[in-house]
# Entry
Amino acid sequence: MKPLQVNIWRGAESGAFQTYEVPRQESQTVLDVVTYVQRRLDPSLAYRFACRVGVCGSCAMSVNGVSRWTCRTHVSKVASDDKLEIAPLRNLPVVKDLVTDMAAFFDKWAQARGRFSGSTTRKDEFARVEPESKQRKQVDAAIECIGCGVCYSACEVVTWKPDYLGPAALNRAWTLVNDVRDTANKERLAAVAGDAGCHACHTHMACTERCPKHISPTAGIAGLKRAVLAATLKGEI
Ligand code: SF4
Ligand code: SF4
Ligand code: FES
# Structure
């Protein structure tokens, strides 16, 4: 097999792609390629990973222009003409090379009231969620989000409206709106009802197409739109 020609982003917001030659291997992942470059060719390359098995979400990068978990992306599936272009996730500030600053991403979870607000204390019985209830079942997939940022980076609305809360924060809000134990839903629906909230979504579906966990933030955002309308008609928000 011919070696790979790999263009990797070097620098921060300003910088340039640098080309490296990496030998091909069986079952090689894009994360293997980045690791080879950092360990064998240029130890100053900055990138982020932890689990290497699709659990932590920290290895997300843009590969040939598409946001992906690099540890779960085989080179053979994405390399065209033995070439790869690896860049940091879009829509987030670049700290260095392939490392993005996730602060704004998680700040938006807080803005969307993405924190559980319960009413029980540690002295009370466990609050129970009925597994077969409609509310629990409709967030079956959504609660599996691991906050990797792939959907956020794929969303065009975030690109041209940087204050948009984005698919992951809104997906999180949707899971809590459906959590019967939560007590902050009026505040949460008010938080996602603004100009930068669920109504800014243009239903492009890029988030849903790209989510490695097969979550549909688009469906959750549509659910939030309905919940906001219902709360508005009832005069609750
Ligand atoms: S919804 Fe999917 S792509 Fe978005 S942060 Fe969660 S796991 Fe990642
Ligand atoms: S469906 Fe909405 S949140 Fe998802 S990528 Fe499109 S505009 Fe962004
Ligand atoms: S390193 Fe954890 S998901 Fe890729």
Notes: The radius of gyration is 20 Å. The longest helix spans residues 217-233.
